[in-house]
Amino acid sequence: MLRFFYCLFVCFSLAPYVAVTAQEPDTLQYLLPEIDAVEMVLPQNVTSAVPLQRVSRNDIMRLGFDGVADALKYMSGVNVRDYGGAGGLKTVSVRGMGAKHTAVSYDGVMVADAQSGVVDLGRFPLSNLSAVTLAVGQGSDGSLRSARVYSASALLSLCTLTGDSTTTDVEIKGGAFGYAAASFYHRYKPAGKWGLTFNGNYLRSDGMYPFTLVNSSLATREIRRDSDIDAFMLEANADVWLGGGKLDAKVYCYSSERGLPGATNFYNKGNRERLWNRNAFAQARYVSSLGDDWRLQALFKYDYNFSRYREVNSNYSSGEQVDVNIQNECYASLAAGYVPFSNFNLSLAADVAYTALENNFENSKSPRRFSLWVAAAAEYELLCFKFSASLLATSIVDKVQGGDGGASFFRLSPSFGVAVSPFDNDILHLRASVKDAFRVPTFADLYYLRLGNVGLKPEKATQCNIGATLYLVGDGFFKNITLSVDGYYNNVRDKIVALPTMYVWRMMNFGEADIWGVDASGSLRLKLTRKVGLLLDANYSCQYAVDVTDATAKNFRHQLPYTPRHSGSLTMSLENPILNVSYLLSAVGERYMLPQNTVKNRMQGYIEHGFSLNRSFSFKGVKLRLQAELLNVANRQYEVIKNYPMPGFQWRLSARVDF
Fold first, then answer.
1. More confident residue, 297 or 207
2. Total structural domains within the chain
């Protein structure tokens, strides 16, 4: 009890200065006999000092998620922007901060797009991923990180599959609206200290789904066109133990062609726009321990990104507009960690990147960006407390060919977090964190033809969190229950938005937003019989995200566009030897498409229901898994983005063979 009151006193003493978070539990597969042993280890998302949500490989399989965006829809505090169909661009905004504040990491190395500032999540299929993790703020697990990771307000981490044995998996899928997909995965792991992995994915869809087009009292039944996609991804990975450390290398290639359907209206039922993307990168990461006290991480990446946009329109003198953009980036990082004494970790990381953009625009400025990140971090455990702190220095310099370039940027960004476990049995975990972050203007913000503004300043943000997690474990009918509640406050200043000037729209720093919110999540695991388990997960988010720029403006303290006040999700799975059945529900409340919260700008909320059914068969060392997915079973027509209708009822069938 003395320990409890001591922890309670310090926690309340720190509460006014820091903020918090909690998170969602790991899933269990009750048919696996080793679950009881794994369950004795507390999940990282329970002990983390920042909000941490994770979708495991088991979750991906049993719930039938088809892409990263599908998995993110069932996380709290997440707003996925989807333009509809398999080929629609998909981005994610976390806690109302905007998609450009969310960074993406692929096997520990950042994925960047200096031109747009966002990453299309459709580029990364789930067929070769072992986990999808979303963290808000800074983690505190003692691992080495590159300095660039510390710059993210929210970090989406994608981890590829690995294994200790040679395996081969092949999967084919088919579904509504011309959907077809195929993937393969081969892991070659001999007895030595090295392994090779090859995987690939192919996706195509014509995207021709029906929808109702409404204009006042007139409604017609239409077919969504120009929403097709044809894409493939190939990847090779190598891992080898060298000199007391591990080297991971990756080569990735992605190619896609898709239609851009545009907004629906009575006068433009078809859109003649297409987009081609080609992306290739090679990366390597080496992690080593130098004795008991020192750790070292070095990584390098070269990234090539090509995009071609074509619009056929009589408004152009040539009858069409073709935009070509080519990005090249070289990125390197070096990090070192030192443990001067037990329960105390120090780390220092330095990253450098050179990014170049070429395009076919008239009077193109061909910008080059030199980026430097230096981060120092410390973690310390004392009794029931875990403290973490970091300081990031960011320096950005742009050079252009002709004309004025953007200003140079330098900023120091601190963060601090604390986690508290006041009871000896670790059933309750309290956490707090505060972080300063900022977003540098993208090449499009600064230099895009007629729209760009070289005078832009970075967006600045302050993130605060406070919350708790309750984690209970049983060994019979009741397996475990996890309950988490997080309260947070974000303040974003110098927001970069497009505003009309005398003749054209221009990018400007105009705006400040206050974002208050609560995220709540819960999970329940029950073992009904020896071979039957019930898994339930629920999430709820409430966001009061308002514009506080100008007290005299009509939209002062109005909800930010496309930010729902209420949203939530529910998944329920019954696992048994005969047929595994999962039910999925995703709900989004009313939101507004423009800054003024008027009836005209209001978009209706929606609820989407789905089912996933699967059964596995084993014979002679081969495992066959059959799965059926029913999506939007109520055939509800809704829009995530105004005038971009989402598909109604859909079905998918898949067969997976593991050798």
1. 297
2. 1
